[in-house]
Amino acid sequence: MTSISYWLINTFTNELYKGNPAAICLLDEEVSEETMQKIAKEIPVPTTAFIEKKQVEFTLKWFTPNRQISICGHGTLASAFVLWQQGIVPKEHTITFHTASGPLHAKWQHERVEIAIKTYPIAEMECPSALEDWLGCKPIFVGRTELDYIVEVGNEDLIVQFEPDFSAMKQFPVRGICLTSQSKEEDIDIVSRFFSPAQGIDEDQVNGSSHGALGPYWCEKLSKQQLVSKQLSKRGGVIYVTPQHNKVLIAGAAVTALQGELNI
């Protein structure tokens, strides 16, 4: 029997039991994707990430309990956090992960992990009647990225009170639906919730990749260069968002909730 080291990291928060949890498995040798999927199903968190060192850089794969996914912001942030906290990589060094979505880079900045994700352009669209029925209100804006629907509604109270019908989401041909609005909190610019049962995650507690669309959209609308974004899920979390020319920087704190050995 072989054992591997793993950590449970709460991301986009500096509090235990808040933010978005990710399990991080550090591999000393190659493990099959079939085994990775079994491990992800065994660990009751939204995403399990697997890191394997390749010379001076790393490969990174993410699995929900149901399937492998092509991009995971909080799983990437948690993976970088583990490598720095364990002294595997000095904090002054940038980490490069090779993933199914291409290379991802992480930096330690101002006691936060900062990762660069791709920009996801939003194509504005007329709201489908089925989507309006699902929302229960008329949205201000509906757009589609290559992954998701981005839906702006009138205020954050609508987002907090929204109770999604997850079974009805099967009709929508997207990875997920992101509801967003401007924030009424003084130190927060925007808020959102993200639903993705297609990935096996009914509600993502804090979704990083959707900010590849939310960042440019809201910065243009609010005439800002940077944003502070809050996820209004039960666990909550805060993301610092900086759109750049062809990428979006997202940053957040992280904290270790658990570490141990996993038998495979």
Order of helices and strands: EEHEEEHEEEEHEEHEEEHEEEE
Number of DSSP strands? 18
Instruction: Determine the N-to-C terminus distance.
Output: 6 Å
Tally of distinct domains: 2
Radius of gyration: 18 Å
Q: Identify the CATH class of the largest domain.
A: Alpha Beta
Mean pLDDT score = 95
Strand content: 35-45%
Q: According to CATH, what is the topology of the largest domain? A: Diaminopimelate Epimerase, Chain A, domain 1
Main sheet overview: 18 strands, mixed
Helix content: 10-25%
Protein model, in words:
The relative contact order is 0.20. This protein is an alpha+beta fold. It is 18% helix and 42% strand. It is globular and about 55 Å long. The longest helix is centred in the first third of the chain and has 13 residues. The chain has two domains: 127 residues, Diaminopimelate Epimerase, Chain A, domain 1 (Roll); 123 residues, Diaminopimelate Epimerase, Chain A, domain 1. It contains five helices and 18 strands. β1 and β2 form a beta hairpin. The termini are close together. The protein has an 18-stranded mixed sheet that branches.
Outline the secondary-structure elements.
Layout: E1 3-11, E2 20-27, H1 33-42, E3 47-54, E4 57-63, E5 68-69, H2 73-85, E6 95-99, E7 102-109, E8 112-118, E9 123-124, H3 129-135, E10 141-144, E11 148-152, H4 156-161, E12 176-182, E13 190-196, E14 201-204, H5 211-222, E15 227-231, E16 237-243, E17 247-252, E18 254-263
